[in-house]
TrEMBL record, chains A, B:
Entry protein name: acyl-CoA oxidase
The keyword Membrane is annotated on this UniProt entry: no
One example of a Gene Ontology biological process annotation: fatty acid beta-oxidation using acyl-CoA oxidase
Subcellular location per the Swiss-Prot or TrEMBL entry: Peroxisome
Species classification: Bacteria, Bacillati, Actinomycetota, Actinomycetes, Sporichthyales
Organism of origin: Epidermidibacterium keratini
UniProt domain Acyl-CoA oxidase/dehydrogenase middle: residue ranges: 152-260
Span of domain Acyl-CoA oxidase C-alpha1: 296-458
Family label: Belongs to the acyl-CoA oxidase family.
Length: 661, 661
């Protein structure tokens, strides 16, 4: 329920001096599309070219739908849209940022196509590129980029999804034949939910516990053939995952390996190798660090899924906002004319903060993509340092979690806001809801990802204290040993800097203007820092309480999750504010400013209980924020259609002929 | 995000003196099943008998699935399960309460079957029974109850769903032939989303604007034949709504009427009639009151959908809680054994308050069903009075809204809590999510229903003041003229009574025990009353502000919605507390008490910002409530599996072989 205050006598918020900005839709679209406008245009054109897939998806049977999706994926590959991430030497575009932009734009269309693209070119191709070396690149990358060689990414098992380190598939080195022997010891260790596995993959990148001469070396990746000319190879057994909530154009499968032998060169040996004689070696000594470094190279998948969620939200909002600007129901006074849905205060409250959040997440995703591009485009002689990589991984995890939850929430609200019509598949929400649902789970379960974010914050925090007890606690939180590469971060100085920037000194929280973006940032930074030190103190207290570490962690965990959530919300706001501040004065800036205020204040409003509890929000100010959110909704309402049009979702992707006229 | 407080040094909540109750699962099941245990047993047995439909629904094509669903509905009719609502004279069971119990139990199974049952026996049969007279009953009810005559309920039009009074279909009386002429003036007036229409209905109850001798008499219902021997009749055109998000076993259709003539007797004339000469008459003079009285007789549909949502939630929780009690992921300490999901604090926070809310809503639904039964079973010479009927309608609207939103939220959370496995159709969430999604929209859009609830509260409130200005405002809120049957209600005295019952006098809110159910009730009553008077004051202020009535209403609307939400949450809590108090001391009472506390405190926690803002919750107490909710989750955790088992969802309805073992 929306929070409401109920002093009926306060004056209505003043709109003195407010001038509604003129929205130049093409200019706003250009701002959203950013430096990859050309890439996004190519992706949009490709979507339109295959627009009939949206209707075919409803009528084709399962088998035909899967084949159709494969054909579209291969057609996309021919246009170059799916190859931006590969080196030019292998027929790719050599531009990581462009590959994310191209991928996330696919979220406007059939999401089975998008996910199959992600599996083939992102997960499978990305693993070969990042974990393999030149021999693998030369052998496979050109055919992967062209779609001539289809593959899958066989990491998750039935028994272990989130806890990748505990996978049970075994790869035992046999020095006699210089081969690895891949084995699935039991059904819990079968590879599960693997996209492309049920039908189309010829090759798999298989993650397995490497065992050399009786010694365990942890999870490593291997190239394992699954099929030749469509026939499953001996020793490999493949099952079909069957019907799913959505994404039924993707052939998810299960794989069992019965002593499948692959040559020594099948090990993707960027970070570790086994010699012919069976000597294991790695440039990274610490096995944990090695594992997380390997996984870290696969971060693009998370960046991509987060972006996909954000873009799927744009489709839903475009339909719901345009419908609400046409649909009338109930006349309020005695006039015969019924009122437009979007003129109802409650309807504005339902849709417009979600619209503002979508803009915020879009620009946060842009910053994330830039960081990804910078890290993965760094010259080999000057690679990104470990801290920068960790920061990227944390931001990717957090943005993926918030972006995909936002998608679930937004699509659902938009469906309901279109009533019974929204329930018809022709009106687009059926596929959007069903297909995006798993985004909160795959590429890292959102809850696990937020723990990863918190782990990073606590590691830095403990490092700042250089306190071994704290470090112990952090170990407990993260459920895995923590790297000793700890360093002071800027977290503790952030808040002081903001306080200095705002009027009022220690009274900044009560004297700053409600529409001052420095105030919004200071509030979210205060919350994050307060929760960070609070979690650390709780951990200390819990370790001394005599509880088992399992129970102690269980008690602190919800606080850990809240901290991570606050951190990511702060990153999102900072990205949005930075974008706003960098714009030249004018109507475009005023438009972004409105959305930024609406985003920030509705985030604060949603957690106003916490801010009041922690002395940073007075009751009067809290009520004033609710009034401001109402007022901002009214200001956004007249430009709402322009704001969704600027997303540039092609008309053909919206369908909804009856809703949109 | 869950709210967290962060003073790490407070003592952990004491569990001194707490003894975990032993749960007698059959006894708890008996408490849940209540007086209709036999009816529910019949319904469960029928579900098990047709359990293979759950898997067939995935493999059958559209056409075959619809026929299969129809066959199951007809088979159910043969067992008597679908006929409890009809009089014994027509082969029914003559027990309204039993018909709701039988219906809502169907929510454990395939929901297309449930909805088709609802359309045929509830909406279509119910309209004939409630709006028709003996001639209609004699002509149709026996065949409707047996399933020999299938029909549909043609109310909603493309252009008007929520605003039923504005329907555009016309029924013009032609005295020359003593017939009504039914016409669809344009596409916006076509009947839309009508269950049973696309394929199976032979007859429709059609809602249309009655016009007699050029005079409009508002919406009335007519029996109109659609098909004979499966062939659509002349003048009738029927389209198929096509694929939907879910419920694809139900044949929803669109209907156009081109001057279709039906005899004068086709008017369902319980509340109005037209003589052969064309004289309109009604025992209810006020047209508005007549309309709402007619609609009010159809309230059972809302009661049924709310119950269905609550029961669908039980299926999802049963799967997710049992899975979380088996599935291990990550080891917290250095032991090899990974930790059960349900031992994680965050996982408890995700699932266990939803479990408590489900119990609360179950018992609130029981109270509602009793009221429904009492009103509709009252002897003709001593019918329920108007106030009682209004109260029933309001409670039905509110419970439907909260129960169906709860279903959407719970099923989604449970799906995510089962990870990737939850995404597979075999694990039940696919159908649950897709099929229940429209519950928030059909049988009254939830937002519109909450406005109906608020309308009732404001009408009573204005009546208490006997202030014409207030009445004007209420007219504006409700968007329709308000009945003048106003009366003082108990609302204003409720709060005083509670305050007297609690220790502490005016300090009750700070001195009562956190686990005192009188405290919980007093908090929710305080909120409701405060919001009620606040909305009234806002309306007064808005009318004097110079805003148009549309804009004024738009501004007040979110407060109106919050008020209605608070009112219904109060009713739900009261029902749960009453159930608890009536139990004899013992483990069963202790079990219900735990759930009641968890439900109440997590409702208060979720709106703690409001309570702090309005001076009824101190910061310290707010933090203590969060700790109590955590503590209650830990206490519920060991008995959680028993609590879901007591729902009595047949094992065959859960599927999920791999999740549940």
């Amino acid at each position: 329920m929306s929070p409401r205050e109920d002093v009926a006598t306060e004056p209505l918020p003043s709109t003195d001096g407010y001038r509604q900005p003129d929205v130049d839709v093409p200019a706003l679209s250009a701002l959203l599309d950013g430096k990859y406008a050309d890439v996004r245009r190519l992706a949009r054109d490709n979507l339109v070219a295959h627009a009939d897939l949206l209707t075919d998806a409803e009528t084709l049977d399962w088998t035909a739908y899967r084949e159709r999706v494969k054909d579209v994926v291969l057609a996309l590959a021919q246009t170059g849209q799916t190859g931006f991430g590969f080196a030019e030497a292998y027929g790719g575009g050599g531009d990581i940022g462009a590959s994310v932009a191209a991928f996330e734009t696919l979220a406007f269309g059939d999401l089975s196509v998008m996910v199959k693209v992600g599996v083939q070119f992102g997960l499978f191709g990305g693993a070969i590129a990042q974990l393999g070396t030149k021999r693998h690149h030369d052998a496979y990358l050109r055919d992967i980029a062209s779609g001539a060689l289809l593959g899958c990414f066989a990491m998750t098992e039935t028994g272990h999804g989130s806890n990748v380190q505990a996978l049970q598939t075994i790869a035992r080195y046999d020095p006699a034949t210089e081969e690895f022997v891949i084995t699935t010891p039991d059904d819990a260790a079968r590879k599960d939910y693997i996209g492309n596995a049920a039908l189309h993959a010829e090759l798999a990148v298989v993650f397995a516990q490497l065992e050399v001469a009786g010694e365990q070396h942890g999870v490593h990746a291997f190239v394992v053939p699954l099929r030749r000319d469509g026939e499953v190879l001996p020793g490999v057994r493949i099952g079909d995952c069957g019907a799913k909530i959505g994404l039924n154009g993707v052939d998810n499968g299960r794989i069992w390996f019965d002593n499948v032998r692959v040559p020594r060169a099948a090990l993707l040996n960027q970070f570790a190798d086994v010699s012919a004689e069976g000597i294991y070696s790695s440039p990274i000594e610490n096995p944990n660090r090695r594992f997380f470094t390997m996984l870290g190279t696969l971060v693009q998948g998370r960046v991509s899924v987060g972006g996909a969620g954000i873009n799927a939200s744009k489709v839903a909002l475009t339909v719901a906002v345009r419908y609400a600007d046409r649909r009338r129901q109930f006349s309020i006074d005695d006039s015969a004319q019924e009122q437009l849905l979007l003129d109802y205060g409650q309807h504005q409250r339902r849709l417009l903060p979600l619209l503002a959040h979508t803009y915020a997440l879009h620009f946060a995703q842009e910053v994330l993509t830039e960081q990804l591009h910078a890290v993965f485009s760094a010259p080999p002689d000057n690679p990104a340092d470990e801290h920068t990589r960790r920061e990227l991984e944390s931001r990717a995890a957090g943005t993926k979690a918030l972006g995909t939850w936002h998608a679930s929430r937004t699509i659902q609200e938009c469906r309901e806001a279109c009533g019974g019509a929204g329930y018809l598949s022709a009106n687009r929400f059926a596929a959007l809801r069903a297909d995006t649902d798993v985004f909160t789970t795959f590429e890292g379960d959102n809850h696990v990802l937020l723990q990863l974010v918190a782990k990073g914050l606590l590691t830095d925090y403990a490092g700042a204290f250089e306190d071994l007890d704290q470090l112990e606690m952090v170990r407990m939180v993260t459920g895995m040993a923590v790297e000793t590469i700890l360093e002071k971060t800027a977290v503790h100085t952030l808040f002081e800097r903001i306080r200095d920037a705002l009027p009022g000194g220690d009274q900044w929280d009560s004297e700053a203007g409600l529409l001052d973006s420095r105030y919004h940032q200071a509030m979210l930074r205060f919350r994050e820092e307060h929760q960070l030190s609070g979690v650390a103190r709780r951990l200390k207290s819990a370790t001394g309480s005599g509880l088992s570490s399992g129970e102690a962690f269980s008690r602190v965990q919800p606080h850990v999750m809240a901290l991570a959530h606050s951190h990511v919300e702060r990153l999102v706001l900072d990205a949005f504010v930075d974008k706003y501040r960098a714009l030249p004065d004018g109507d475009l800036k005023a438009t972004i400013g409105l959305l930024c205020d609406l985003h920030a204040l509705s985030v604060i409003e949603a957690d106003r209980g916490w801010f009041i509890e922690h002395g940073r929000l007075s009751v009067a100010r809290s009520k004033a924020i609710t009034r401001q959110v109402d007022d901002l909704c009214r200001k956004v309402r007249p430009i709402a259609v322009d704001l969704v049009d600027a997303f540039g979702v092609p008309r053909e992707m919206l369908r909804a002929e009856e809703l949109l006229g």
